[in-house]
Amino acid sequence: MAVLDSVLKAYQSPTRMVHAIGALSALGQESAALNIKRPLVVTDQGIVKAGLLDEALKPLRAAGLEPVVYDQVRANPGIQLVDAGAAYYKKERCDGLIAIGGGSSIDSAKGIGVVAVHGGSIVQYEWGKDPIHSRIPPLVAVPTTAGTGSEVTLWAVITDPDRKIKFNVGGTPNIASWVALIDPQLSVNLPAGVTAGTGMDALTHAIECYTMAYHQPFTDAVAIHAMEYCGRWLRVAYAQGHNLEARYHMSMAAMLAGLSYGTDSAGAAHAMSQSAGGVHDAPHGALTGRLLAPVMEYNYAGEPERFARIAQALGLDTSNKTVWKAAEVATEDLDIPSLNELGFAEDEIPMLAKKAEEDSQTIGNPRDVDAHNYEKIYARAFEAGRHRKVTRQLAHAGS
Ligand SMILES: [Fe+2]
Predict the structure, then answer these.
(1) Is position 251 within any domain?
(2) Co-location of 196 and 111 in the same domain
(3) Does 6 reside within a domain?
């Protein structure tokens, strides 16, 4: 039972969710329906090189639109990248946004939209500072990974290199994409490591949002379904990149897990991965996945019945307390890098723990947690990674 049951809760999504294998062909008509004529297409070089940008431009041009490309997005996008994108949007007199890529491209597009409408710099709109009082320009988000859920969330995560943190922007429907256009076909060529990391991110969203203090029946429902899909399909998508059924279900899992956020935050795993991600430029999915099991082990005592339900959703024995071990096994099965491999060192634990304590997502965690507890969780996460070498040797034995 959540502690905040007397607090008014609401759920709102302004996003039209459109999905099918091959849904990209509808990008032109979906954009035209929003009266977009000159969209800024926000993407990264990986998408350009994979030929996906060209694939996306075809239906846009066929529908009579004049797309302008901003392909400078990089992983963990920073303030400068977003502000420069907003300046380009204005200079090119764009009237809408199309994001093609993973969470970095979609979050960048959201940030560009906020600055294009409100002015200034994206740093001013960190959650709790200047309000985002108006809706961003029409944004069609086309995810090419299955993990972030940013296509349907009310958040963007931006990196501040000076403070060495990632900060949240949003918590309001004003930042949400207008259309989430989800085509599982776009993820079939993802490298296995990206499939693993982004899929673990989706699973973490679902588990954290299901157990966080702010959960409500609607978010519970979508979170449970996302967990079921991850439990059934993540390993298949990882092992068989071209298995469209697995890709379809993981795309839906990412969307459902994104919806499970609502207007609220996640919990300790995201407080840790988000704050640590500002220290070293590690991929968010792998880092989050590596932290999930130790956080679940720690959090179990706060919501034992909910963790039993998670075990059931993942197809496990519901009576035991060790559902967190399933997450640890998953990180090994999916060859998620250790914290050391992701660029972190044990002597950074006190600093990382302090940053996690200060992260706003700590607030909703199902068990009281402070810097001291975070140190213990980090120690467990480093320790778990040390066993990895054996797994890697086995995983690669046949290759
Ligand atoms: Fe995440």
Answers:
(1) yes
(2) no
(3) no
